[in-house]
Amino acid sequence: MTELLNKLAKKIIQSDEYQLNSGILFDSYIQSLTSTNEPIGRGVIKKLISSAQIFYMSEKRNIRNEGAILLSMMLDICGDTYKEILPIANNIFVNSGDFPNIQLLCQRFPELDFKLNFYSEAQNEFRETLNTVLELDFPLTDFQRLLWEDLSKGYDTITSAPTSAGKTHVILNYLLNKVAKSDGSFAAIIVPTRALISEVAGKIYEIAKDGGYDNDIEICTIPKKELFANKTFFVMTQERLHEILLLGDLTFDYLFIDEAHNISDKSRGVLLHLTLEKMLEDSYPQIIISMPSSNYQDSFSTIFKDIKFKKEITQISPVTKIIMSIKLKGSNLVISRNNSTNIKIIPKGFIKTDFADIICKLGKGQSNIIYRNKTNDCENIANKISSRITETTQNALLEEAANYVEEFVHSKFSLANNLRKGVAFHYGPLPSSIRVLVENLVKEDHVKFIVCTSTLAEGVNLPARNLFLKDPIQIIPYEKSEQIEAVKINNITGRAGRMLQHFGGNIFLIEPDKWRFKDYFNNEQEEEDKVPTYFKSINEEFEIIIRALKGDYDHDERDQYRFYTIANKLIREFANNKLDKTLNADELNIGRKKRALLLDNIKLAHDSLRVPAFTLEANPTVGYIQQNKLFNFLNKQKQLEDWVLPHPKSGSLYDTMLRICQKLIEFGVYQPTADNNPEHICIITKKWILGNSLKEIISEQIAWNIRRAKQNSEKPKSVNTCVRNVIKAINNDIRFRLSNSLKCYQLILQTILVNKNVELSNVKLHSFMEIGACDDRMINLINMGLSREAAKEIDDKLVKKETISSRKQLFDLLRKDRLKTIHSITKKEILELFSE
């Protein structure tokens, strides 16, 4: 029967009549995006809905996808005109187990009221009952139901599904249900970026509030010394979780690795690998691995060697993707649907050939994501879109947001005026509070156009009806650009269309013939199975690994952290008699001679180790030879008090930090990014640690930039450039590179102080760097989950003696109008995170 359906579907697609009718539908669909619908005859719709039913029954992905595209377009442009297609659509969704779209169908067409025969109604009710679970208040797709069942049975689970398939929502609901109803449980959730920490933590709080569990759980997002509540979610990057694990005395009941394909990411993969192995030393959690591509499903086979995973994998999403190519031809736009003969030519309606004009033409009145490769491109496109919006937007929330940006970042930061037009940009170097502000405005549909960089590929959930792509590439500083990995492109395109709001999402490829890489959407291209970066680097960059083991890999190189982390991991495995696991792994394919050479160099490195094994483990990104050099230098110092790390409020903070920083650079422990020098970094670090406002730091940087430009008779950098540079310096140089280096420094010096029986205060400055504060009250506020900007504003409004050690105290202050002068956005941040 299946083979017969496939042959029938193929025959239909190849027929001239189908090409004609689907072309009529596509013409009307495009017309609906730019003006009004072109009416379609009942006969055409009747034939197309019959075709869609047949396509949906096929097991072939491309045929089923064609049916989903047809149905999505018909519901959008003909649902109100031809009510007959609604019960057919309902039946298709029921048979597909697609209950989110049934819910959307009822929301979109509330007048939907039809009677089926007894057998059909009973069948539909049975399917809905099957896909409804007691713990959730919404029916699931078939994929979500099977995933829930596996999790509920306690299986270690690997799941792979497109971005909009709803897998994360099911997993978080499951974890919250288990932890909240337990006598006490710890759940670790690993996310790849800091931006995702706040998003996932926010989702957990939201689910907890809906279930009445918000007072039963605690969410920890940064390492801390205090005791944890007995029901705690640790939502952290691999770096932060690794630091927590080093504290010891913690065992976890659940481990959820979100965006798990990052095990193969160059910059994050090795530390994620190391962190997972560290967790398994003391914990035996239920393991849940989630990824957007099935090519990564075997990437964890060596890490979790003896664990049998239940796998739930699908390529189907409730939100279908309609991929279209856009070409400029004279005064027209030529729009063609990928993998079909559908073409529609429409007048441009504008004179120039600017990208922003195309976006405004096709995206007017809808929610739109525009992907750009660089941060400054995001700003430029946002400015151009804003300039083309002539209508005045009377939106109090947008005005409130724009005012917040001006007050807490800079009055001339272009995001403020963009927001007033319902336009925004979103990229890594944005202050955390601004990033969350923008994300909420997008999700609430106040911002209609958002221009993004690769933050979309990191799992930040910003879905929209339309996605615009123009020549997407992976930019590598000072090197040739590369093609974006397929998994990241899929993550980006997965943002087109929002579950429970759209049946389909539009993906517009702008002049794809001019792209540097033209095979992003080649359905015939199969991506190879992925292996962890740890093994891939040893296999493909063996000579560099040997150099890292010898300590002569240049610490100025961009990938130094990856290679020294691998070298340290190999040495640690050798010391713990666990190296055989790596050398005998299926993923390692270097041959007998190279294995012997690798082993020899690991032994030599281990024998020359001067620092304690714990220090090496605690500082995985710093090469062991660099640590040895630092150890030898400090061990020879007669006046160790000159080299201890001072308290943040010490008058000698800058001078001491600069002196230490210069030594760290000399020994290869620390390397500033190319655009920064140690003096500049230490100045910003001091202000950051002391809790200076971000606006103050940015304004001083802008003033310095103007003075320098005047001295050199140059044009000063723009405000936007200065804002980006400050945030990049804080995120990359201070909170990552210098923080890691000073953590290593502090541990080595502490070891020497203990060995020499010298009692000196040696402050953990790296902890203050990560947080961006040193006063207890501000630290407590940040630990509660507030952004640094919100914590700073609240801290400034209160008298110094006022203490806030719990969210109840914070709410009491809010209720008693003690915080009535704080910005309305800050009040919202408090209410969103800590509402009772």
Automatic annotation (TrEMBL):
SUPFAM superfamilies: P-loop containing nucleoside triphosphate hydrolases
Ranges for domain Helicase C-terminal: 354-539
Gene3D superfamilies, per database record: P-loop containing nucleotide triphosphate hydrolases
Residue span, Helicase ATP-binding domain: 148-294
Keyword annotations: ATP-binding, Helicase, Hydrolase, Nucleotide-binding
Domain of life the protein comes from: Bacteria
GO MF, any single term: helicase activity
This protein's name: RNA helicase
